[in-house]
Amino acid sequence: MRSSDTSIKLMADDKPMHSRLEPPQVFSLKGAPSDFKIALLHELGFGSDGTKVLDAEGNAVKDPYLGVEIPLDRMVLMPGSTIILDDNPASIASYLAEHPERE
Amino acid sequence: MGVPPPNEPPGGGWTLALARRLAKWHREKKLKLIERKDNYQIATEAEKSVSFKLYKKYIREPKVLGWLSTGLTLRAMEPDEVRRADVKFIRDNLASTEGGGALHVAELAQSGALDVILALVGSGRVHIPPTQTIDDVLSRIDQYAVFIKESDDLRRATLDADVRALGSAPFVFIVLGRWTAREKAAKVFRGIAPAMAERGYTLTEMIDERQAVGIFFRT
């Protein structure tokens, strides 16, 4: 794996991230506590039982490409808030291939 | 101050305010929220690769392009011992998608066979008849390819490959076996090679420690 990471824009930490006006293109949730991820899912109309991602009706959300349920610590949210993927290269690559306009 | 280390929220920590701001940006389609950066990077590199750009010249179906891009991520991960479990996870789940067709299409990209086919088509050395297209090859993969398993009976697999190649008269026909099915796949495509030659096909072999691929072109 290359150490340089030009495709992922990190923000400067000169002020709190949530006070910034411009978002990064990509933000990693790795290391975020479960409570934070659950709050984020609630903001987007989803839920969680504490271990996996649920939809508004309480059903487990499945990765559209591999058909697997999505653990809370493996969720990837692509633009268009209804699309949640399992965190693996194949699902992300499939999404990017199908939605080139969002790159 | 410099760039913060990855996976640490700059400034204010993992607060509800941050969650709301991320959600807002996400709803506005300005932000992708990922987990592991290396997973995202493998995916973006697949999409930006020379192979994928070649695929996009011939293939229009987004779902098929997704499977091909998946194949390229498998190609990138396969040599990495640390990624073995990830490769197995993806392959196992892909195998139950579209009756295994998704995995077979991905394997054409993973193996490099599709790159060879498209390069020869692009060079004009192989002609695609009007009734067959690359999209057709990938959407009806089982008419254009056989995927050999270790458990396959050699005689039956060879007969099946011969019948399929004869039945649909494809401009290209592929025999592919990976890892433990590698030697058997080579026996299958070499077994049907004389009959295929009589029908006007030329065999191109791709053999390495991971796979054996025989590609028959009608020239």
Describe, in plain words, how this protein is organized in 3D:
The complex is a heterodimer of chains A (103) and B (219). Chain A has 103 residues and is an alpha+beta fold. Chain A has one domain (11-102). Chain A is 19% helix and 13% strand. Chain A has 2 helices and 5 strands; from the N terminus they run βαββββα. Chain A has helices at residues 34-43, 89-98; strands spanning 26-28, 47-48, 53-54, 75-77, 84-86. A two-stranded antiparallel ribbon of chain A has the order 2-3. In chain A, strands 4-5 form a two-stranded antiparallel sheet. In chain A, a hairpin with a 4-residue loop joins β2 and β3 (53-54). Chain A is globular and about 30 Å long. The two termini of chain A are 21 Å apart. The model of chain A is unreliable at 1-19 (pLDDT under 50). Chain B is 54% helix and 13% strand. In chain B, α2 (37-47) crosses α4, α3 (50-58) runs antiparallel to α4 (62-77) and α4 (62-77) crosses α6. By secondary structure, chain B is of the alpha+beta class. In chain B, α9 links the parallel β2 (145-148) and β3 (172-178). Chain B has a 4-stranded mixed beta sheet, covered by helices on one side. The radius of gyration of chain B is 21 Å and the shape is elongated. Chains A and B meet through β1, α1, β4 and α2 of A and α1, β1, α2, α4 and α5 of B. β1 (26-28) of chain A pairs parallel with β1 of chain B, so a sheet runs across the interface.
Order of SSEs of chain B: HEHHHHHHHEHEHEE
Task: Report on the biggest sheet of chain B.
Answer: 4 strands, mixed
Which bin fits the share of residues in helices of chain A? Answer: 10-25%
Q: Roughly how many Å apart are the termini of chain A?
A: 21 Å
Please state the overall shape of chain B, judged from the principal axes of the Cα atoms: elongated
Oligomeric composition of the shown chains: heterodimer
SS class of chain B: alpha+beta
Rg of chain A, nearest Å: 15 Å
- How many runs of DSSP E, i.e. beta strands of chain A? 5
What does the average pLDDT of chain A come to? 81
**Number of spatially distinct domains of chain A:** 1
**Which range best describes the helical content of chain B: under 10%, 10-25%, 25-40%, 40-55%, 55-70% or over 70%?**
40-55%
